[in-house]
């Protein structure tokens, strides 16, 4: 386990396995455990999972946050652990951060895996409304709608417990970071190996949106995961790990 100092926050990170490094970033509202079952299936890689600010065991300073800060947090994790030549894997918000980090630090990131994510998540207004709702009513009030968009989620009680335990201010402040982000232009300038993944039942980031984002990067590949919703790393860990392993092998990250 690691405690990493970033701007105005201490971040929690954990790791498993040995070998070439893969860094995993989670989605909005959950924590690094989203990737545990996938990392367990990649023992021949050094798998780093961290909690974003406002989530899990990392600090939750008062918001709003900026996407630049979330990207800088990912950079701080990599620099503190003296990582280089990493493949960065992100689901949903984590995939957006992956795009931003690759744009900022192409010297650090050699490949991307983007799962259920986008270069832009809709218009700003709904995100500001969600931030206001989190601050006024807490996470329990938001959880049913969020989980309905994540379906299918077989292990519903643990997921709901982790979602409702997320710091409401951290969640709201992160929503405000998403509201102000449009990575279409910077992502379209990337030139590095990239693989996209999406559940065919994902209501939060429909497959066409994910495919559109991934195809901004020339030479990228895209794979649908049948029967999966937004949280494919949780519900279909073996299939997700198989895709990641194949991608890592194809780019010589072994």
What can you see in these coordinates?
The protein has 254 residues and is an alpha/beta fold. It has a single domain, classed as Rossmann fold (3-Layer(aba) Sandwich), CATH 3.40.50.1820. It has 10 helices and 8 strands. The chain has helices at residues 36-40, 67-80, 93-104, 124-150, 156-164, 168-179, 184-188, 207-214, 232-235, 237-250; strands at residues 2-6, 9-16, 21-25, 46-50, 86-91, 109-115, 194-199, 221-225. The longest helix is centred in the middle third of the chain and has 27 residues, at 124-150. The protein is globular and about 50 Å long. The model has no long low-confidence stretch (mean pLDDT 96). One of its GO terms (cellular component) is membrane.
Properties at a glance:
single chain, 254 residues, alpha/beta, Rossmann fold, eight-stranded mixed sheet, 10 helices, 19% strand, globular, AB_hydrolase_1, AB_hydrolase_sf, hydrolase activity
Coarse morphology: globular
- Segments where pLDDT lies below 50 for 5+ residues? none
Number of helices: 10
Strand and helix order: EEEHEHEHEHHHHEHEHH
- The CATH topology is given as Rossmann fold
Largest sheet: 8 strands, mixed
Strand order of the largest sheet: 1-2-4-3-5-6-7-8
Report the strand count: 8
- Measured as a percent range, the helix fraction is 40-55%
Distance between the termini: 24 Å
């Amino acid at each position: 386990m690691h405690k990493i100092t970033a701007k105005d926050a201490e971040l929690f990170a954990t790791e498993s396995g040995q070998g070439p490094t893969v860094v995993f970033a989670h989605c909005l509202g959950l924590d690094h455990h989203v990737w545990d079952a996938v990392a367990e299936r990649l023992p021949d890689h050094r798998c780093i999972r961290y909690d974003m600010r406002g989530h899990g065991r990392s600090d939750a300073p008062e918001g709003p946050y900026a996407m630049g800060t979330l990207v800088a947090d990912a950079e701080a994790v990599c620099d503190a652990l003296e990582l280089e030549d990493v493949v960065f894997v992100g689901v949903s918000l984590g995939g957006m951060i992956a795009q931003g980090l690759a744009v900022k630090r192409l010297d650090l990131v050699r490949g991307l895996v983007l799962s259920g994510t986008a270069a832009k998540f809709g218009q700003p207004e709904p995100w500001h409304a969600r931030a206001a709702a989190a601050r006024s009513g807490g996470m329990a009030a938001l959880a049913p709608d969020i989980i309905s968009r994540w379906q299918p989620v077989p292990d519903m009680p643990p997921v709901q417990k982790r979602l409702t335990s997320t710091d409401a201010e951290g969640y709201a402040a992160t929503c405000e970071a998403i509201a102000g982000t449009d990575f279409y232009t910077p992502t379209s300038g990337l030139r590095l190996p990239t693989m996209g993944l999406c559940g065919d039942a994902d209501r939060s980031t429909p497959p066409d949106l994910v495919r559109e984002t991934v195809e901004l990067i020339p030479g990228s590949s895209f794979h649908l995961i049948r029967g999966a919703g937004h949280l494919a790393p949780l519900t279909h860990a073996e299939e997700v790990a198989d895709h990641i392993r194949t991608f890592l092998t194809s780019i010589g990250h072994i």
